Amino acid sequence: MIRSVTVKTLAALVVAVVISLAAGYGRMSLSIALGGIVGLLNFVSLSKSIGGLLNAEGVAPVMLIFNMVRLMLVMGIIFVLIYLKLAEIIGLSIGLTVSFLVVIITGYFNSGKKS
Predict the structure, then answer these.
(1) Which residues have C-beta within 8 Å of that of residue 63, sequence separation ≥ 6?
(2) Is residue 113 a part of any domain in this protein?
(3) What is the number of domains present in the chain?
(4) Distance, CA of 27 to CA of 5 (rounded, Å)
(5) What's the CA gap between 53 and 64, in Å, rounded?
(6) Which of the listed residues 24, 81, 93, 97 has the most CB atoms within 10 Å of its CB?
(7) Cα–Cα distances in Å, from 111 out to 106, 107, 108, 115?
(8) Nearest to 41 by CA among 79, 9, 18, 68
């Protein structure tokens, strides 16, 4: 499912970036792409940590620390992008939302399928 979400997210981000470029928002397009990539990396990292949690016993404190570090890393990346004015807040939000929606929609449609 990770591969499916990755491909679908990248396709949705390409569509969002092309629409933004067609509307004449050059810097916004970069922000959308960066926000989507950060969201996708966060999803992949989260799925790996959940897989590690389900496959091992007694590692809950380690996983808690790992998830906190992951959250701080994502927030730090977003802060640096905004602070250095490499991305716009709205574009990052759109990119993160696109990646989040792809994860939610893919999970919804795959929830009824048997593995």
Answers:
(1) 49, 52, 53
(2) no
(3) 1
(4) 26
(5) 10
(6) 81
(7) 8, 6, 5, 10
(8) 9
Number of H helices and E strands in the chain, helices first, is 4, 0
Which burial class, exposed, middle or buried, applies to 55 when counting CB atoms under 10 A from its CB (0-12, 13-18, 19+)? Answer: exposed
Token match 């590692």: residue? 59
DSSP conformation class of 8: H
**Domain around 104:** 2-108
User: How high is the pLDDT of residue 72?
Assistant: 93
Return the pLDDT at 53. Answer: 63
Rounded average pLDDT per 10-residue block, the chain, 115 residues: 88 94 90 93 84 64 80 92 92 94 90 70
Asked whether residue 114 is assigned to any structural domain, the reply reads no
Residue among 38, 47, 55 nearest 4 (CA): 47
Q: Answer for the pair 96, 37: CB distance below 8 angstroms, yes or no.
A: no
